[in-house]
UniProtKB/TrEMBL annotation:
The keyword Transmembrane helix applies. This is Protein p34. GO terms for biological process: intracellular zinc ion homeostasis. The chain crosses the membrane at residues 7-29, 41-59, 75-93, 113-131, 151-171. The keyword Cell membrane applies. Keywords: Cell membrane, Membrane, Transmembrane, Transmembrane helix, Transport.
Length: 296
């Protein structure tokens, strides 16, 4: 079982545990703000399931109907997660509005906050694990899930401060007001997840640092060639697609040109994990005198 799949299964288990704890905190207090926190956790569970499905699909090898693989499945999961976050924010806004119309005193607020704090700590630790491991595994679904959980942590901290203020002042209207603020924060986080995931679906280029690395590898490893030009990259989940034109001397044999390509591909795959490389070899008269200069 791969690391991304293990993490996705872990997210489902952690999400269900946190949801149960936060629901208990809301049941103990009757707080609209704590209810909003629990509602967001229902989204965590649903999106963790979606992430697991997407990661399993993305791991499938290329086939006749998907010759370039299934890597983009993770971006669909991340978009779905963003949309569900936005839906959760709208549900919380509705609860906040109802609370503003009829604010009520809270029961056992401090005990409920302590229970909720336990869920917050679990989310904070798991969020950091997901973001770190997701980046190293080049998994957009896991990174999106981790960022969502981090937004949940910030939300929970804000909820705790607001409920404490409501208890200290007796201004129970602060509870639904805080729930509304939580919803707006979640709405912003959801829109960010959707925006970043759509960039992947639109074949956005690989990060600038990766492109610089690719150019350096080609320049250093393509000895015997003249130049490389028309370099293009795009990322799709754990895969990074790289294609370019490699100009070789007119008198070079096909065998020698192929040897250069093999050497460059091997170096690129070592420098850029998940690289999928296509090289178009051209004779010397196709030289553009621009692009990547091959070092002797």
């Amino acid at each position: 079982m791969s690391t991304p799949i293990r993490l996705a299964i872990g997210s489902i288990i952690i999400g269900a545990l946190v949801l149960g704890i936060k629901t208990l905190a809301w049941w103990m207090t009757g707080s609209v703000a704590l209810l909003s926190d629990a509602l967001e956790s229902t989204v965590n569970v649903a999106t963790a399931v979606a992430a697991l499905i997407a990661i399993r699909v993305a791991a499938r090898p290329a086939d006749d109907t998907h010759p370039y693989g299934h890597h983009k499945a993770e971006f669909f999961s991340a978009v779905l997660e963003g949309v569900m976050i936005i839906v959760a924010a709208l549900l919380i806004l509705n609860e906040a509005w109802q609370g503003l119309r009829s604010p009520v005193a809270l029961e056992l607020p401090l005990v409920g906050l302590l229970v909720n704090a336990g869920a917050t700590v679990i989310n904070a630790v798991w969020s950091r694990i997901l973001i770190t491991k997701g980046r190293s595994a080049q998994s957009p679904a896991l990174v999106a899930d981790g960022r969502h959980l981090m937004a949940d942590v910030v939300t929970s901290l804000g909820v705790a401060v607001g409920v404490l203020l409501a208890v200290a002042t007796g201004w129970w209207i602060l509870d639904p007001l805080l729930a509304g603020a939580v919803a707006l924060n979640i709405l912003w986080a959801g829109s960010r997840v959707v925006r970043e995931s759509l960039s992947g679906l639109m074949d956005e280029a690989a990060p600038e640092a990766t492109v610089r690395c690719v150019r350096e590898v080609i320049s250093q490893e393509a000895g015997g060639a003249v130049e490389a030009h028309d370099l293009r990259t795009r990322h799709a989940g754990q895969a990074i697609f790289i294609d370019f034109h490699l100009v070789v001397p007119a008198e070079m044999t096909v065998f020698d040109a192929h040897e250069i390509c093999d050497r460059v591909e091997e170096a690129l795959k070592e420098a850029v994990p998940g690289a999928r490389i296509t090289i178009h070899v051209e004779p010397e008269h196709k030289q553009k005198h621009s692009g990547i200069v091959v070092l002797d």
